[in-house]
Amino acid sequence: MSPRTLYQKIWDRHVVTDYGNDEALLYVDRHLVQEVSSPQAFATIEKQGRKVRRPEAHVAVADHAVPTKRDGRRFADELAQAQVDRLKQNAKRHDITYLPMEGDRHGIVHVIGPELGFTLPGSVLVCGDSHTSTHGAFGCIAFGIGASECATVFAAQSLRQRRQKTMRVNLEGGLPDGVTVKDVILALIAKIGTGGGVGYAIEYAGSTVRGLSMESRMTLCNMSIEAGSRVGMVAPDEKTIAYLKDRPLAPKAELWDAAVADWMSLRSDEDAVFDHEITFDTSALVPQVSWGTTPEHTLPIDGVVPDPADIRDDGKREKMHRTLDYMGLTPGTRLSAIAVDTVFIGSCTNGRIEDLRAAAKVLAGRKAAPGIRAIAVPGSATVKAIAEAEGLDRVFREAGFEWRDAGCSMCVGMNDDRLSKGERSASTSNRNFEGRQGIGGRTHLMSPQMAAAAALAGHITDVRKYL
Amino acid sequence: MTMEKLIELKSVAAPLMEDAIDTDVIFPARFLLLLERDGLGRYAFNERRGGSEPFILDQPPYDKAQILVTGETFGTGSSREQAVWALADLGIRCVIARSFGEIFYSNCFKNGVLPIRLRGDEMAHIETAAEAGEEITIDLPAQEIRVADTTIAFDLDANRKRALMAGLDEICTILSDDADAIAAYEKRRASETPWLVLAPEQFGQIKTEEDAA
Fold it and tell me: What is the reported pTM?
């Protein structure tokens, strides 16, 4: 057999029917179900009188709409309450495991999938959420789908797909102090653009990637979609195995041994050819911050707000004017001089224990600047419990942060945590789109450490000064 | 089960000449709390409408447009299919862009909406025609766009073309064509990668007391 990439190997294993021309019916091993993209999908199969083909292949949890200040009462927002109630009813009716908000397994879909051992190497995993690329950190093909495809997965446990082209991104040289994988992925998106990965499944490789924890690999793969790629992945290694061992839904005993033997062999062949390959030296990278309304609008912390006058293309210049107007920024302003009023640490990108530890390390013994509204939102109940056992909640509170329950929170403006018009955030989330964090809200994307430093300074600043 | 067929469109095309219009702009997040999929057009581009200058899709003749012409990576970002449902509810059956967000692109086909990628002079020609309010014809069987005396061909996967033309629902197609293949695959999976098969009893340990009650 000719040499194949990791993506091609997993793809080949999941072909149910080959339609030719790189189109196939692809089997789906796992489906994470959340409240926003599922109600219409359940309605579709019910209207067609169909059942969920394999109820055990799905796990349902509400994350987007849930308030993160929970008191056991019904939500103030009735629409949000109704959406969460609907998920619970649908899961029950179709015999799908539902993880209640009050339970100790609750959390953001992309945080709990790996925690449960639901996410496994060599699998195909989908969810009606674009950040499903997160799970590729475990060496699986994981991608976001729309509600119609969610319905197809319920009924047929498979999807018609076109095989992606493959791109390998080699990250080499390790990371300097104060620089994280979030800075790497933001810098990469700034380099290749939000359309740079369209049509490709990205495999991240190289010495920097091998050195990353599973949490960091998840952050990396999570933001692949912001470069346009539905799929980001990292080949499994001993870190992957160590993370998954003894997770509740991971295989056990002999099955575990057989799985590990298979997983450790899952990698791109030495001589596999990628459709595109780039190498990126991360050894001298500096912290990154977004200034505009797409993640590619990112610059190093020592940069300044760009000037539309420097742009030749009329359309692009006009877009930049629009962006700066929306963001309320003047060309030439140093990024480190931009004042923020809100700091958000959390999300499926940066709501894991490692992220909270890193932010807490910057905050320890210090106080947020006066007038800053700062919230720390663990990605799951498990993350929250670990953080509290380590005393991180105290560090956050003493620094002036609110310590919340798990949820998507201020990453997506559809729960109680939002920016108001004109408010400006330092945010560890993944999207700085217009209105993403609330109508008229202004978002600056950065790492958890950088967001913590912004809370202390009251403006965007270089975290390396605080280390 | 069927969706609305698409064979031919004749319409003016609304020019929305901006790059990277994401699905948060097309369908703002707070409306995602609605449980419906019909009638969502009123929320489309909500933050771009109601300003001093009418939004392009509210200006005659474009308020009747069935075609939208736009820039790079249209529909990038969130997977929310509401973005397509809302456009379709406004009567848009075809989006012509330089490139698309992939999930949006895929979602279009599930809802009888044809996404077409064009670049270079061909795209420039369509932009000009859209801005001039000229009638554009989309001929799906021929895979052609016709405007005045110019004809432009476009690419499309064969399966997707067939589904749009026949108004086929994907679930019905898969279950009628591939049901046996799926069952055979599941049998093979159980023997080749048995660790991927979840047994219902494995969920016992993550159930809460509330579920057990």
Answer: 0.97
